[in-house]
Design a protein that fits this description.
This protein is an alpha/beta fold and about 675 residues long. The protein folds into 3 domains: about 230 residues, no CATH class; about 160 residues, Alpha-Beta Plaits (2-Layer Sandwich), CATH 3.30.70.270; about 240 residues, Alpha-Beta Barrel (TIM Barrel). It is about 60% helix and about 15% strand. It has 29 helices and 16 strands. The strands form 3 sheets. The chain has an 8-stranded mixed beta barrel, surrounded by 6 helices. The longest helix has 28 residues. The protein is elongated, with a radius of gyration of 37 Å. The N terminus and C terminus are likely disordered. Bound molecules: ligand C2E and calcium ion (2 copies). The site of one calcium ion has 4 residues, from loops. One calcium ion binds next to strand 13.
């Protein structure tokens, strides 16, 4: 039997249907209690009150009332109470009046212990009296003998007990669920079948004990407390079960629902909305700059901040809405019933307001902002995955436009829509391992042997095949994905490098860094951690930094390069000759290598032109600064020869080898590079 009015204790407003219903049910229960007790008469009542058995039973019922069987997905304390078999035994043994009085007493005690409001306790007691009344009536009707001569039911009477149990269960459930449906303002059928099988099963187990308790009652009062043992075991194992179920569906840190639960609930709500022609809203929230808090104040502080925010979020939505944490600083909120985009927007703004209040931790105030994306079923998408994707796209817009809250807008021009959907595809791709690396050898021009490899990213798109960086890098660079991207590039490349090393190939591998990656304060730590994790020596990794990066913010970039230098990794300037990077700027930088961009390299083949002279002079200066020059985009033999003759140490390009699938590298190296690799060890 279930506690009807959720966890809120504000009584229903006077005159509402729920109020009328509760008043009606309470009055009916009180009336039945009154009539049956009067029917028993004061003498009988007094007699029973002197029986120790009644008092022992009262104790068991009170205890049982406080120890309900927990069930997954239900509010704590709302499951079938373990008092059920005792109350039922009382109906069989003494009839309704005693059973009802004992049950009401226990309900009042439990109500006081749980600090429930009086109206709620009264309703609970009344619905018990009514359902026990039905059980009593069934027993009287089917097996008049049981009630007239209280005692042990025998043989066929067990069937009567079962029937009474079923009737009582049904009435109890209907009484309670009507209240729940009115309280949650949903149709009765929506709550009717929720957990029905479990409820029936548990009630059957509990009620089956009732006849055994009756047998014990007739033998000795001392047998009755023994039933506390199996019931206690049932109670504790139900708690364990619920705990395990909770762990599987909730986030450990915040206690919020996890992605799994969100998915299940959303799918269910979408089906329901489809049937009712209603709407479902999905909000995706991402904290702005949370990473900084984590990095500067440490994870424990970051964790507490997330907990505070989770608490605020749950207290700013309606009980039926589902707040979930998707990981990191990302939250999703499911609005099972939402009128339109505007009302979803209101919720988003309310949440934003709730989170905007500074959080005080370790004596410091934190101001946190969130970006929220909104998508609606069926307006924006018709299944959960697409709904998430649309909300994600909207969030991306909210973040990049700094508007805070955005709803999905397909009306944007096609170009940006394509970009937006690419963003969320990429995001999913990164999580699902769609990022791959290709490796292009760098050839030493003195002896034609490989001196290293450059790792180049590819993205395996589910529909468009293998994409090159020019198709996806801009989206990565302009979104919050670049961190995850760099981390994965490093992870994949260094794992590969470690395998090669085990096979005897120990040439350094170069990894490219984008503008934002280089200026990211935690980059050195990310790199160091990746090296550690894969057991790769720092000198076997080279980081390539684009010329554009150094021009954008020379001071910060120089500082970043110096910090990377401290790790012991090699550093290269990429795409030299594309921007306006001057040779003078090159002087102060701790670089090992300068990679001459293919457009610059191409001029080397121009014979005695002016361009040729400039490039040659640049290479000379690079060498004079103690750096190596690598010619990029060397696609023909004459170009390779020109590069060598101009003083380049190494070259890279289709003339030697195109970027290769990782599986091709070792065979290629066996054919082209073994001699060099033995020399380099
Ligand atoms: P990049 O660092 O200059 O890389 C060299 C590019 O030239 C590669 O293009 C390579 O496939 C291409 N290439 C190789 N040989 C030849 C040749 O003989 N002729 C010509 N015309 N091109 C040649 P890809 O792989 O498409 O990469 C393009 C750019 O994307 C890279 O330019 C790099 O800036 C960026 N990139 C690639 N992978 C990553 C990465 O993992 N992280 C970051 N941040 N950027 C990356
Ligand atoms: Ca490069
Ligand atoms: Ca380059």
């Amino acid at each position: 039997m279930k506690d009807p009015i959720g966890t809120r204790d504000i009584g229903p407003r006077v005159g509402t249907p729920l109020w009328l219903y509760m008043v009606g049910a309470t009055a009916a229960g009180a009336f039945l209690l009154g009539v049956s007790v009067l029917g028993l008469g004061p003498d009988q009542l007094f007699l029973h009150a002197r029986e120790p058995l009644v008092w022992v039973m009262l104790c068991m019922v009170v205890l049982g009332e406080l120890r309900p069987i927990a069930m997954p997905g239900q509010a704590p304390g709302s499951g079938a109470p373990t008092s059920l078999p005792f109350t039922f035994a009382l109906v069989i043994f003494y009839g309704l009046p005693i059973a009802a009085l004992v049950q009401c007493t226990a309900t009042v005690v439990a109500g006081v212990v749980r600090t429930h409001a009086a109206h709620r306790t009264a309703f609970n007691a009344a619905q018990y009296v009514l359902s026990l009344g039905v059980a009593d009536a069934v027993l009287r009707l089917v097996m008049p003998g049981i009630i007239t001569t209280p005692g042990v039911p025998v043989g066929g009477e067990i069937a009567a007990v079962a029937l009474a149990g079923a009737a009582s269960f049904t009435v109890n459930r209907i009484l309670v669920l009507c209240a729940v449906a009115m309280h949650e303002r949903v149709p009765l059928r929506q709550v009717m079948f929720k957990g029905l099988r479990q409820q029936i099963l548990v009630s059957m187990v509990l009620l089956s004990l009732a006849p055994l308790i009756v047998i014990a009652m007739t033998h000795s009062v001392l047998y009755v407390p023994l039933f506390a043992l199996p019931l206690g075991a049932l109670y504790t194992s139900s708690l364990l079960l619920v705990k395990r179920d909770h762990q599987a569906n909730h986030d450990e840190l915040t206690g919020l629902a996890n992605r799994k639960l969100l998915t299940v609930r959303s799918r269910r709500e979408i089906v329901r909305a489809h049937q009712n022609g209603a709407r479902v809203g999905l909000l995706l929230l991402d904290l702005d700059r949370f990473k900084e808090v984590n990095d500067t104040l440490g994870h424990p502080t970051g964790d507490r901040l997330l907990q505070t925010l989770a608490h605020r979020l749950t207290h700013s939505v309606r009980p039926n809405d589902l707040v979930s944490r998707l990981g990191g600083d990302e939250f999703a909120i499911l609005l099972p019933q939402v009128r339109d985009t505007e009302s979803a927007r209101e919720v988003a703004l309310r949440l934003r307001g709730a989170l905007a209040e500074p959080v005080r931790l370790d004596g410091m105030d934190f101001d946190l902002q969130v970006s929220t994306g909104i998508a609606l079923y069926p307006d924006d998408a018709t299944d959960f995955e697409s709904l998430m994707q649309r909300a994600d796209v909207a969030m991306y817009v909210a973040k990049s436009d700094r508007t805070g809250v955005e709803s999905y807008d397909p009306g944007k021009d096609r170009n940006s829509t394509a970009r937006l959907s690419m963003y969320s595809e990429l995001r999913r791709g990164l999580a699902e391992g769609a990022l791959e690396m290709r490796y292009q050898p760098k050839i030493g021009l003195a002896d034609g042997l490989p001196v290293g490899f450059e790792a180049l990213a590819r993205w395996r798109h589910p529909a468009r095949g293998l994409l090159t960086p020019d198709e996806f890098l801009p989206v990565i660079e302009h979104s919050n994905l670049f961190r995850a991207f760099t981390a994965q590039v490093l992870d994949i490349t260094l794992a590969r490098s470690a395998r090669w090393h085990a096979e005897g190939l120990s040439l350094p591998v170069s990894v490219n860094l984008g503008v934002r990656e280089l200026l990211c304060p935690d980059l050195p730590e990310t790199v160091a951690a990746a090296l550690r994790e894969h057991g790769v020596a720092a000198e076997r990794l080279v980081l390539e930094v684009g010329e554009q990066t150094l021009i954008a913010d020379p001071e910060a970039a120089t500082a970043a390069v110096e910090r990377l230098r401290g790790l012991g990794v090699g550093l290269a300037l990429d795409d030299f000759g594309t921007g306006h990077f001057t040779l003078a700027q090159l002087v102060g930088l701790p670089l090992d290598e300068v990679k001459i961009h293919e457009s610059f390299t191409a001029r080397l083949a121009d014979g005695d032109s002016h361009g040729h002279t400039v490039v040659r002079a640049s290479i000379t200066l690079v060498r004079a600064l103690g750096m190596r020059a690598t010619a990029e985009g060397v696609s023909t033999a004459p170009l390779a020869e020109a590069a060598r003759e101009s003083g380049c140490h190494a070259a890279q390009g289709h003339h030697f080898a195109a970027p290769m699938d990782p599986r091709e590298v070792l065979p290629w190296w066996s054919a082209h590079g073994t001699e060099n690799s033995t020399r380099s060890q």
